[in-house]
Amino acid sequence: MRQRLTTLLNAVAVFGAMLFVWQLVLWIFRVPSYMLPSPWAVARAVAARFPSLAGAFAITAEEAVGGLIASIVVGVAIALIFAQSRWIRRMLYPYTILLQTVPIVAVAPLILMWVGAGTGSVTLIAFIISLAPIIANTTQGLVSVEENLVHLFLMHNASARQVLVSLRLPHAVPSLFVGIRIASGIAVIGAITGELYAGSSRVGEGGLGYSILYASSQLQTDYLFALVLAATVLGFSFFFLVSFLEWYFLHHWHESARTPEVE
Amino acid sequence: MTSVSSVPQVAIANVAKQYGNGAPVLRGLNLAIPKGEFVSIIGPSGCGKSTVLKLISGLTPPSSGTIRVDGTTPRNARETVSYIFQDPTLLPWRTVRDNIGLALELDGMSRDRRAAKTNPLLDLVGLRSVADAYPRELSGGMKMRVSIARALATNPRLLLMDEPFAALDEMSRDHLNEELLRLRAEQNWTAVFVTHSVSEAVFLSTQIVVLEPNPGRVHAILPVDLPQERSAALRTAPEFEALVAKVSHTLRGARSQ
């Protein structure tokens, strides 16, 4: 308890110091507020425009969650196919790398053209960009089962379905969570990037990316900062949520999910 | 327990084994293991000790020759065979109890009936108090006991063990050796036990098969004329030490082949 309090106080102190340095820069260099607003101005912008900020936050969160869930469902399904044979992996694996290396910024206009502007195409972009780590990690988890464990199952006349359900799938869960953790961060970035292109079907209403673009064109730098702050909060909450789920499902048995007592 | 029955538990006739285009691992291997025997297989590294177990279990087919287990093919005999690996090979996401019940569950046995089978096993290997713990909470010796209990859950007639205690410290190993003999006295399975340790082989076995390498084949079969009832005190008895010396000598002979 005492240790947690210290950690919390440390975090607050660092945050305070950062705000102080920020304010100091403003005072020393006399930066105009449309270039860099003061922390106080950002706080005021958050308070004054909270409903539209929260609205943008909710839209982006929905798109990112939708894209992430879709990529988990599709990614696990693809990984199950990949786990069937080395031959299939060798044939199709390069395409998942392609998926990872294609710059989404280049594909976004195409998707916009095919699907049309709005949350649908943004969700699709978040899905595409977060799919590769799910496939890669889940496949790894499914195929990296120790040979003797497979032999054990065979010795007890286990069916192929039993080997999959009782051995490969549970064995792949920690790897799946590694994939989800990576993908969750990317999904948020994907959603915001997608919104820069395909933000909104209605003017003035859109997620964080769309609002960032809008605020920057209007030179509302304090609101722009508030939006960046919201985007960071969104990324953080995704990360913490996934970490919590990982802990919740794995802490009974898996080493990675334990809180390190010795460091 | 050395009852000679018409059908040996394991009969290996003129077996050769080669993986792919590699050098032959085994050639001209002949071995009959009568029911009720505890046979240790010992030999220099590379003599194919573990391969013999893989062949008996049917996990890999022989390149030539025949193997009969309980009078049938290794695959058909699997229901009566359990395999204990060098690692405990426990499923980390299952509790001790559910690990022991794994084979029963794969066989489609209901939860209640599984519990009725696993509870006495937990007592038998002294793991009752950690029945609901996960493997990562156990010591190496305890994990190996779970592995043994899991193998015994299906009431096997033949137990194949591939250096099961090699990774343990000497105290745990000696202790588990004694427990293994106690379990065998109660349940009367036949055992094929691969090991590197001469004293372990002498302590456990009724017969020791010494293999020679390149390619692997039987070098010598040594009977172990020690009393059926064996306790820790046996390890310091002169007849035990004499046998260890004899087996070690034979093993050196096998190595120089």
Major sheet details of chain B: 6 strands, mixed
The structure class of chain A reads: mainly alpha
Number of helices of chain B: 8
Radius of gyration of chain B: 18 Å
| Uncertain stretches of 5 or more adjacent residues of chain A | none
* Number of separate strands of chain B: 9
| Uncertain residue segments of chain B | none
Would you write up a description of this structure?
The complex is a heterodimer of chains A (263) and B (257). Helices cover 81% and strands 0% of the residues of chain A. By secondary structure, chain A is an all-alpha fold. In chain A, helix 3 crosses helix 10 (221-250). The longest helix of chain A is centred in the C-terminal third of the chain and has 39 residues, at 160-198. The two termini of chain A are 18 Å apart. In chain B, helix 7 (198-204) crosses helix 8. By secondary structure, chain B is α/β, with parallel strands linked by helices. The two termini of chain B are 34 Å apart. The chains are: A mainly alpha (263), B alpha/beta (257). Chains A and B meet through helix 7 and helix 8 of A and strand 5 and helix 3 of B.
Which helices and strands occur, and which strands form pairs?
The complex is a heterodimer of chains A (263) and B (257).
Chain A (H helix, E strand, L loop, with lengths): L1 H28 L9 H10 L1 H33 L3 H16 L2 H12 L3 H25 L3 H9 L4 H39 L9 H10 L3 H30 L13
Helix pairs in contact in A: 2-10, 3-6, 3-8, 3-9, 3-10, 4-6, 5-6, 5-8, 6-8, 8-9, 8-10, 9-10
Chain B lengths: L9 E9 L5 E10 L4 E5 L6 H9 L6 E6 L11 E4 L11 H5 L1 H5 L4 H14 L15 H13 L5 E5 L7 H18 L2 E5 L3 H7 L2 E6 L4 E7 L14 H18 L2
Parallel strand pairs in B: 3-7, 3-8, 5-6, 6-7
Antiparallel strand pairs in B: 1-2, 1-4, 8-9
Helix pairs in contact in B: 4-5, 7-8
